[in-house]
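FAQ: What does the model actually see?

It sees only this:
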Amino acid sequence: MPYRVVPGRSRPTAATGNVISSAGECGDKDQVSRSRLAHSTRRDRAAGHVSLVGATATGKTAAAVRYARRHAAVELVSVDAIAVYRGLDIGTAKPTSAERLGVTWHLVDVCEPDEEFSVARFQSAARAAIGGIEDRGHRAVLVGGTGLYHRALVDELDLPGRYPEVASALEREVDGPGGLAGLYERLRDLDPIAAARIEPTNRRRLVRALEVVIGSGRPFSASGPGLEHYHPTRFSLIGLTLARRELDRRIGERLEAQLAAGFVEEVATLVAAERGLSRTARQALGYRELIDHVEGRTTLDAARAEILRRTRVLARRQESWFRRDPRIVWLDAARRDLDDALDEAVGAAGRGGTSARN
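And it is asked to produce this:
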């Protein structure tokens, strides 16, 4: 895979980026209270940072919020590729107002819907956030299901460069004759290893792979040891899992709750905005389907069915992605003593390092 691990870094370096603080740069909804955050104890600091991962709808956000409220000097860092967008609220299942109360969140609502947001930009902003958390003597809990963003932080990935002119030309090529199929065949010719790892319909990854191949002159698949390698990390990695039937049930219930909360109306407002949505935002799960409905290309029932199907597919992919990492300690998200089990797992991981566990 096209990312290599940078050895020897003991902590993220400071970097500029939009980070939500208690001041709430994006308005009242992002203002949070720090009144509960006491000075961390030596034991809290020794436990180090945590990353809580798992498939969508496993309850990661709720579990992380409860954890933060049980432990002094914990700040939460969202690891979600779409939650960074202001205005994309209902469909991203962002932390609710209740889940923000008394808890410090970072990397939520940091860019406008018409902006493109990359993993490199996320990594830079998250490093800055974690650096600030450490400067305050606090510890970070990463929470989210965007696998590459997670690896970019816990493994300090050195990301390939950007080549905007090449990317723009490739985007025009996708929209022209041949479209994605032509791009995929081109990648197969230039970098067959990368092509084998990317779905032929994944526009963003195809464009990115070819951008690197053409812009750098090197294969996208040849940059470093790759994502298959799981090195020691200073983060305690905890995963939440659910039985397939229960996960599907939760996904369905959440979608119905989102629609009842005004998901369609949210999408209609975003589409009608003067500056519109970026390509990344338009392709976000749930938003893409409801944009088709709002713009008259499909019915609401058809959009609902497609969102449900794609969300279940996403959950399977997330499970597969995270299950490959032998460092993650897995917990059943349905267990009644989940909070106690999470505390114990974090403590055990902190004492035992980052060797493989299952």
